[in-house]
Amino acid sequence: MNLKEKSSIFEFVKKFYSTIVIYIIAQSIGKYISIYMVNVVGNVTNALIDRNFIYLKSNISEFLILLLIVSFVVPAILFLSSKGYDKLIMNFSILSYSKFLKQKRGILDQYDEGEIIYRIPEDEVSYTGGIYTLLGDGSIVIFVIIQSFYIMSTIHIKFAVICMILSTIPILLVKYFDKKIEDLYSKEQDSLSKISNMERSIIENFSFVRSHSLNNKVISSIGEQYDSYYDIYKNQTFIIKALENFKDIFSIVCEVLIYIIGSYYVSSNQLNIGNVVKFFGLSIILKDNAKLFSKVLANYFRLKAATTRYVEWTGNEESFGDKQLKEINSISFEKLSFKYEDKAVIENFTYKINKGDKVLIEGKNGSGKSTLIKLLTGLYSEYTGDICVNDLNLSEIDINEFRSHISVVTQNPFLLNLSVIDNIKTCYRVDKGDNIEDILKELDLYSIKDKIVGENGEHLSGGQRQKVALARALVAKSDLIILDEPDNALDKNAQDYIIKKFSNEESIIMVISHNNKWREEFKNKSIVLK
Hints:
The protein is 66% helix and 11% strand. The protein is α/β, with parallel strands linked by helices and 530 residues long. It has 3 domains: 1-155 and 298-317, no CATH class; 157-270; 330-529, P-loop containing nucleotide triphosphate hydrolases (Rossmann fold, 3-Layer(aba) Sandwich). The protein has a 5-stranded parallel sheet, sandwiched between helices. The protein starts with a helix and ends with a strand. Residues 331-530 form the ABC transporter domain. GO terms for molecular function: ABC-type oligopeptide transporter activity; ATP binding; ATP hydrolysis activity. Keywords: ATP-binding, Membrane, Nucleotide-binding, Transmembrane, Transmembrane helix.
């Protein structure tokens, strides 16, 4: 792991350490009681053999209390611990999305939307689960080993070492064998995939095969593939069965060896039966512990991969200055150039916009119109030349403060799952705003002002969604209003109202549109990108 990945894990532990500690304590209590129960059972066995009824009578209450704790208290503690983990997942998800929203846009452009939608929840679960397992279950593994070995070594050190080895090695070897078997099955599946692809190709190219008399060659080729698959299947089936049998036998042999060696120590009077019971019980616990260790080991490798992926989409935050802006009075582009995947999108672009200017951005598809807006709003920072606001370089400005002076309306506006009027009010400036109800009436939204729009406006038509976004920009009274194809889904009356309304605003207005009415209203002041 590199330094950024390690820092990410350290930050996670620092933020959620209390939940991890509670999990470790809860699991440790459960394991400690299990180990203590084995110890008590061993002592009870000795008391029964020795007919020590005084010991049994004095300790029966302790035994019953332990049974009660194991049956009810420990499950309750573990349940509360699991609820804590669920809460951690929820909080971490919120934290992850807050980081995601601060990332450089250029990094996110490396993935398509579907991949990001899939990766965020998957990486979150792998990342949190990996850390949780590594620290939580890893601590439990160490605790059980120390506690079990301490009890066994105080009774018989040699048998303690033997039990430790024979209890853990089979589980670790089984995991090794399982990996080998999985690899063998993978080779078999690859061979089957080749056959399947060939059969699909024959079906798709049926006419070509028939018209070129390739029947015999095709059948011969399929036969060769099946022969190859059969050879792989025949050889691997024998190896797989042998490995599966060996891992089962090896596990049984190790378990039997513990019983045989324990019996030997009893027969030679080195151990009594009660102590052997303790060893057998602790061996079972150590066997489960070895399984947990193999889980920790597997999760460690998953965590490494998940951390790399998680840092990719949360570890590249925007970096800007700290200079504040009270308002936006001017915007200038000086010899601005930008490349996307080595393709020049904007080259040597120079232009100045002053307060109150209304500018139409024109150009064919792919000429850089939307890219220019993304550069201005700080979504892309890998450019040459300068973008200045009030004669300050964009890189020196507090980007969040700058964005608070901007309103953007896109072709596919984002709406919150609130009512129409509440969506508009999210940007309402009481000190500057127009009367919201007047705008609602002009845009024919008044009758649905209390309607819940649904997730991203799914309960509204495309035109209604566009109107809500435009109304939101109007009431915000931002210093800079950017409209990207704002009237595509609007009827003629709404288009005329919007064009006239924005043309009379005191703000800087930048519009991307193919509607000639904007050019007429803006007095032919335009940026033409080629």
